[in-house]
Write a structure and sequence with these properties.
alpha+beta, Translation Initiation Factor IF3, four-stranded mixed β-sheet, about 35% helix, about 45% strand, elongated
Length: about 110
């Protein structure tokens, strides 16, 4: 499965557009991680606990995006983007979305 942030995939042509596809993940850092992150925020700098949370959540969102595109019969997803936000003070939501397509070599 090709996942691209561009409108087209180099060397391929789109033969069918299947529609929008997305992968959604909501995660929460545990109490211990929140306490450590809170202490780090007093000092300043990167808060590695939250960086790790966001990276893992984005990877999981892409995995779900790919799974949903495969269920639609897609070969690729183009115009892939991320959207993220907070739910409450301890949860992070990430959505990976794009357009599922079928492609063939040009």
């Amino acid at each position: 499965m090709l996942v691209s942030t561009t409108e087209t995939v180099a060397g391929y042509r789109t033969v069918e557009t299947l529609g929008q596809v997305f992968g959604v993940v909501v995660r929460s850092r545990g109490l211990g991680g929140n306490v450590i992150a809170g202490l780090r925020s007093l000092i300043g700098g990167e808060i590695k606990e939250y960086t790790s949370l966001v990276e893992d959540t984005r990877r999981h969102a892409i995995d779900r995006l790919v799974m949903n595109a495969q269920l639609m019969g897609a070969d690729a997803v183009v115009m892939m983007r991320f959207d993220s936000g907070s739910i409450g003070q301890t949860m992070n939501e990430v959505v990976a979305y794009g357009t599922a397509i079928r492609i063939e070599r040009a």
